[in-house]
Amino acid sequence: MLTEQIQNLPQVAGVYFFYNEKEDLVYIGKSINIKKRVIQHFSGKDRKSLKIQNYVKFIKYEETGSELIALLHESQLIKDYKPIFNRAQRKSVFQYGLYQTDVNNYIGLHIKKITDNEECITTFTTAKEAKETLFRITENYFLCQKINNLYHTKYSCFGYQVKMCFGACINEESPESYNMRVNRFIENNTLEKFTKFYVLPGRNPTEIGLVYIENGVYKGYGFCKKRTRKTNYIKYILPKKDTKDARRILIRYMITEKNK
Description:
It contains 9 helices and 10 strands. By secondary structure, it is an alpha+beta fold. It folds into 3 domains: 2-87, GIY-YIG endonuclease (3-Layer(aba) Sandwich); 96-188, no CATH class; 196-258, no CATH class. Strand 4 and strand 5 (106-113) form a beta hairpin. The two termini are 42 Å apart. Helix 2 (34-43) crosses helix 3 (47-55).
């Protein structure tokens, strides 16, 4: 029965639910490909996968149309239901943060493991994702690879050699001039006083997904027909809590989408 359920799962973005033989919800997950991710759970040899394989007897799912809505939906559901296998995951999925630091009066953007006593600009799931995103930010805002700890040298960074850095690494650009661009990046990627509908793929070809932020507050998400007037989008938003995790998800989305 379980094998048949897995084979019938769709290869689309969404949230999936694992239940034990008593039909208790024991795990909630999300993926851009539900079927592929569930198969990984049932073919894995790590401790968590083996526990899931022993306990799980039923699977359900909800399509979300996009990874962003899947992330937001999963985050809220885990807080609401606190499934046993999710509670066992003590570490957040977001392991790395982007932090501001002072580098001889220049504002540096550095990646490091997240700590509770420091506020970060945004978060990432892996060091690779964080580094790749910071390289794109550095390029898009003409920042310095050396100051951002991406290029280790006593002299000028590689970006300076290809005219993508204005020379902050060798003091040719003043901290005041350089920091203006760093601050512009930070301001462009904050939720404060920010109102926007994010329009995303829907669960079928005739639909769109919506995520709504109002005056810097995450309000929720929903779905509507593609032909729906923009002035009516608000009617389709399902109210959700503006949590710390939701804000992290949204800021990460803003930064990665703008710096692809």
